[in-house]
Every structure is written in structure tokens, then in C-alpha cells.
Amino acid sequence: MELINNGLGDNRKGGYDRVDRWDEDTTTALTAHFSEVLKLLGEDDQREGLKETPKRVAKSMQFLMQGYGTDPAEILKSAMFHEEYSEMVIVKDIELFSMCEHHMLPFIGKAHVAYIPDGRITGLSKVARVVEGFARRLQVQERLTVQIRDCIQETLEPLGVAVVIEAMHLCMVMRGVQKQHSVTTTSAFTGAFMNSDKTRREFLGLIGEKLH
Ligand SMILES: [Zn+2]
Hints:
Layout: H1 24-40, H2 53-64, H3 72-77, E1 80-82, E2 89-100, E3 106-116, E4 120-122, H4 124-135, E5 138-139, H5 141-156, E6 160-169, H6 170-175, E7 184-189, H7 191-195, H8 197-206
Parallel strand pairs: 2-5
Antiparallel strand pairs: 1-4, 2-3, 3-6, 6-7
Bound molecules: zinc ion.
The site of zinc ion (ZN) has 6 residues, from loops.
């Protein structure tokens, strides 16, 4: 995939460089499909406000799906250091934007990630980028939670990994299937977080979560 910067200048957001990425051939094909979608929904795809919409959506979808082009394990390895530190490392309140694979609507929330190093640590920002790499795909929250956990466990081989995700699913909120504003919480643990109540409670206390 060819990577093209949209040239909009400073679009830095939330502490990372947001680079819009799209492929010209994919954009052309998607644009035709989204025009068709508009017509099937009863719209006039040639009216002023919609003229550029299929192309915008085509680019936007590629941005939202850019996780397919990333290898989160490689991101972790790119900043892996030997260190004897063996206390819990927590990265909390990582902003999370993902897309539900059943309805292709967003789910948004926060991820909290912790690990207990066993001789290897990684850059804190890399943990957030692992979350992003898996989130920018079509997902279900449960799988996303486990993928983040397994990636950190298999790459850093720490004494334990904990991942908690709290997210609001627009497919639930907008379609009125369940209580509005309800937040779905998922968690996944390995090692010390699974085997030790004390360690798990310490983590949950530090992220302010009241899981049972
Ligand atoms: Zn959904």
C-alpha cells in the first residue's frame, strides 16, 4: 500500500502524529461503491453537499482501518529495553476508537493496560500504539481486549498482563437496542494478574475500576 500524506499540515492530535493514509486505487474503487450506497439509500449523490462525500468516506474508512497495515508486536519490539524493574507498569486512560464489525459503527472509550516486567520493558507510548493498531480495524470489544493482552504477553514475556476496556457502542446507543449511554467493560489477564487477587485488586484500584 502506498502511503500518502493528505498535506493538510498540522493535524497532530492527542499526542501522536495523525497521518491520513489512503491508497489511490482503493480510494477510487471505494468511492464508486459509496456513491452507489447513497443512491440505494434514496439520496442524490450529485447534489452539492454530497458530491465529494463518497470520496471523503472512502479516505476516512481507510484511515479508520489503518490497523490492518500495522504490526503491533513490531511496534513493541521497536522500543524494547532490558531493565530489572519488576513493579507494575500501568498505562491508563488510553483513548480508544474502534469499529464494531457487526454494524460498522464506532465504539469509543478507554483502555487501561498494565504489565509486570520480567527483564524487558517497552516505551509507554508503544503500549498506546498497540491499542491503536488493533483498534483501527473491524472489531468486537472482547477480541480487541484479548489481542492487546496476547501481543504484550508474547512480545515482552512479562510476569503478567492486564487489559481493561470500557467502551460505548454506537450500534447500541443509536439503534436503541439497549440502554443509552451504557458502557461495556471487558477485561483480560495473564500471569500474576490472573493468579493473585492482591495484584489484580491493586491494578483495578489504580485504574479506579470496580470489577468483581
Ligand atoms: Zn455493533
